[in-house]
Amino acid sequence: MMLHYMVRAVGLSRGAPRIFLDGPLLRATGFRPGARFNLQVDAQRCSIELVLAPGGQRKTSSRKRSDAEESVIDINGREVLRSFPAGMAVRIELYADRVLISPLASELARIARLRRLLTCEAQGWMSSASLAHGIGVMAKAAHLGFARKGMALRLVAAVELDARWIDQACERNDAWSQETMGIAAPLQEVVQDGALLRRIGLVDLVEAGLPCSGASRAGKAKRRLGCMEDHPEVGHLVAPAIGVVQSCQPIAFMLENVTSYANEASAAILRFMLRDMAYDVHEVVLEATAFGAMEGRTRWFLVAVTCGIELDVQHALELHLQRFRPPARYVGELLDPVPLDDPSWRSFAYIGEKADRDALVGNCFSPQVVEAHSIEVPTLRKGYQKAGSTDPLLQHPSEPKLRRQFTVAEHARFKGVPEHLVDGLSFTAGHQALGQSIAVEPVAWLFEVLAGALKDWAKDARSNALHVFDLRPRVNRSPARAVTG
Question: Which of 21, 361, 440, 469 is least enclosed, having the fewest CB within 10 Å?
Answer without folding.
Answer: 361
